[in-house]
Structure formats: structure tokens, C-alpha cells
Amino acid sequence: MSKLAAIAHSHPMSLRTIESCFGTLYSTFGLEVEGNLVGFAILHQIFEDATLMDICVDPSEQGRGYGEMLLQAVIANAVQSKAETLFLEVRASSLAARHLYSKYDFKESGIRQFYYKTENGNEDAILMELDIKPNF
């Protein structure tokens, strides 16, 4: 996973951070094509709050719906685990990801200024959330 993250993200999570995401509060999802890992997602959940920690698709495989497949799996898992809200943050410049999240009714809920490192400094993180409370 860390090798995939390194080619897909300009500033990926460290191997140590990724390894820490294999525990009781996390769910990890991998997507393989012809035996090769082409994408993954990491979900963290504490009680009713779930957070998409990372979603990653190999750049050579992007545009084929794999990110959407991973997002669907994350949402389904959060619902099954009785989460009420699914949170995430996304780079302000990541328009394709922001469009995908909006397609699934994630709403922008805030900004973390200068949160992500870039080649030339920093950029904002857009905070988004999805209300997944069951409707009774």
C-alpha cells in the first residue's frame, strides 16, 4: 500500500502511519485488477463517527471508476457499522475527488487552511461530511 500511495500522492502517508491503520478501529479496502493492487481505502471509526483516512488509485488506472468503487465500499461499511456521519478531507485542488464526493452527497463543512504540503508551499483541505444516519 505504501508503494501505491507513493506514486499516487505527492505527499503520501508514511509506511509507519499506514501500518498503524491495521487495527480494531480501522477497516481497509483493497482493489486488485489481474492480481495487482490498483487502489485502496482506509476507514477509521469511533462510535458513530467514521472518517475516510485515505483513498488512493494508481495514476495509470485512474478514470476507470475504481475510486468510486472504493468509496461505495467505504460508505457501505460505515453504514453497516452504524456510523451516523462519514467525514473526510480533500485537497482543494483535487477537483475530480471533490466532484466524486459531491456525487455521493458529501457536503462541504469547513476548510483547514494551508493543511496539505505542495511542491510550492501548502494548500487548503476542504472538509466534507456525509450524513448516514438511519431514517426511522
How many separate helices? 4
User: What structural class results from the helix and strand content?
Assistant: alpha+beta
The residue fraction in helices comes out at: 25-40%
> What share of the residues does DSSP label as strand, in percent?
35-45%
CATH fold descriptor: Aminopeptidase
Relevant CATH superfamily: Gcn5-related N-acetyltransferase (GNAT)
**Order of secondary-structure elements:** HHEEEHEHEE
Just name the CATH architecture: 3-Layer(aba) Sandwich
The strands making up the biggest β-sheet line up spatially as 1-2-3-4-6-5
Tell me the domain tally: 1
Distance between the termini: 39 Å
CATH class: Alpha Beta
Low-confidence stretches: none
Shape: globular
Counting DSSP E segments of at least 2 residues, the number of strands comes to 6
How can the largest sheet be summarized? 6 strands, mixed
Radius of gyration, taken over Cα atoms and rounded to an integer in Å? 15 Å
Task: Give average pLDDT, whole number.
Answer: 91
List keywords for this structure.
136 residues, Aminopeptidase, six-stranded mixed beta sheet, 6 strands, alpha+beta
Describe the model.
The chain is 26% helix and 43% strand. Strands 1-2-3-4-6-5 form a six-stranded mixed sheet. Strand 2 and strand 3 (49-57) form a beta hairpin. The model has no long low-confidence stretch (mean pLDDT 91). It has four helices and six strands; from the N terminus they run H-H-E-E-E-H-E-H-E-E. By secondary structure, it is of the alpha+beta class. It has a single domain (2-131), classed as Aminopeptidase, CATH 3.40.630. Belongs to the acetyltransferase family. RimI subfamily. Its main location: cytoplasm. It catalyses: N-terminal L-alanyl-[ribosomal protein bS18] + acetyl-CoA = N-terminal N(alpha)-acetyl-L-alanyl-[ribosomal protein bS18] + CoA + H(+). Acetylates the N-terminal alanine of ribosomal protein bS18.
